[in-house]
Every structure is written in C-alpha cells, then in structure tokens.
Amino acid sequence: MVLKSLNLKAIVAATLLTVTFFSPFTANAQDSTDDSALLEALAEADSAAALALDRQLQALWGNSGSAAMDLLLKRSLDAIERGDMRQAVEHLTALTDHAPNFAYGWYQRARVYYLTERYGPAVADLERALFLNPNDYNAIFALGNVFEHFRDPERAYQSYLRAQAIHPHHGDVTSALERLKPAIVGKEL
C-alpha cells in the first residue's frame, strides 16, 4: 500500500514537472500572456473570436503584476460602479503614483476624468496611457471621444480609424465611424 502511494506521488510529480517545462513551448495566439500575438489574432478575427480576444487583452492589460496595485485598481473600478468618482480618482492616483508604467491605470483615471468633465487631465492621462501601450484601442477610442467633444471631427475620425485598425469589431468604434463618416468623407474631393 505504501509502495503504491509513493509510486502515485512520483507519477503526479513527473506529470506536473512535464507540464511545467513543456507548456510554455506550445504557446499560440490564444496565449493570454502574449499581447502581440493576441493583437495580431484580433486584427484577423471574426466578431465572435474578437470578443474572446478582447477579453483576454483586457485581462492582460488590467493585470499590474502587483497584488497591491491590482487591489487599488479593483477599488477604483468598484468606486466607479458606485458612482463615487472622487474615491475612484484617489485610488487611481495612488495607483499611477506607485505603478507609473502601468498603462491601464492611466487609462482608467483618464476615463474617470472624462466622466467628470475634467478634459485636460483626461487628455494628459490618455497620452501617458498611449505612450505606455500604443495598441490600447479603448484609450485611442477615448481620445477620439475627447476630440469629438471639442468639435474636432477630423481628429476624432482619425482616432477611431486607428482604433478600428487594431480592433476591427469594436462596436463603439464602428458606430462612431458611421456617425462621423458623412461629415468627413463628404469633404473629400
């Protein structure tokens, strides 16, 4: 009985060791830790696959790599959901102070600033987020929203086109492009 138990433990340990060593070598476009592969797959995906890839990218970009920073992000998102934008800004400011290279934190704070009509700080945070992650199609879309708010449809349209090039099935981007297209395309000669 003891011999069988030891043998079973050895088999389980060998299996876990094999999985640990050989799993990273079988990565593909669905590997949720490879953002360039996910982005490449997103650009070519149909709408159903794009939804899953978008979720993977958001999960990847929303992970700071630090439990403490992830907790600040969670608290800020909870505050946004409750409508407590002051608390959300406080948490996001702490997050961006302690994790200045975490693009998603800058994007989220820009979002809160935009929702509270603080457009200058929103643009500054979007610029920082896009400097850190130039492929964040949600941040590019948000920048387009700011341009549209300030009645600059040409720049908004260009932002939306840039976001669409990265995520062709982004519903909000598609709607924005359709809304602005008559005003922009009608000006071409």
Instruction: Determine the structural class based on helices, strands and strand pairing.
Output: mainly alpha
The count of strands amounts to 0
Task: Assign an overall shape.
Answer: globular
Kindly report the oligomeric state of this protein: single chain
How does this model look, in words?
- This protein is an all-alpha fold.
- It has helices spanning 2-22, 35-44, 47-61, 67-82, 85-98, 103-115, 119-132, 137-149, 153-166, 171-185.
- It is globular, with a radius of gyration of 21 Å.
- It starts with a helix and ends with a helix.
Condensed summary:
With 189 residues, the chain is mainly alpha-helical. The protein is built from ten helices and no strands.
Which properties best describe this structure?
single chain; 189 residues; mainly alpha; 10 helices; globular
